[in-house]
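Open question from group meeting: does this chain pack into something compact, or does most of it stay loose? Before anyone orders reagents, we agreed to write out a predicted structure and look at it together. Recording both the input and the output here so the notebook holds the full record.
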Amino acid sequence: MTRTQDRPRTTVGWHVEMEFEEDEHRTRAAALLRLPDGSEVRAHGYASRHPSDANQPRVGEEVAGGRALNELAMRLLTKAHDEIDAASGRTSHALR
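Structure tokens returned:
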């Protein structure tokens, strides 16, 4: 048996909450991730519809939601990077 097989596996699940606000021309998405340590990571994304485009609210949600999730990912990487620096006492390479 290898050493990695001796260790119990830990399963962790994360759920991202998304909310949307829309009007005829704009969509705003808010993303929230609550981590097991009690901290939260929040991000926002926006989409605008050109007046000549068809009104497709679902597309606006997908664009704004995708942008919010992209920002959420970058904030989570920054949080991890800051925690690595704090634990090691030195400056680490950026996680991207």
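Observations to bring back to the group:
The CA atoms of residues 82 and 88 lie 10 Å apart.
The beta strands are 16-22, 26-34, 40-48.
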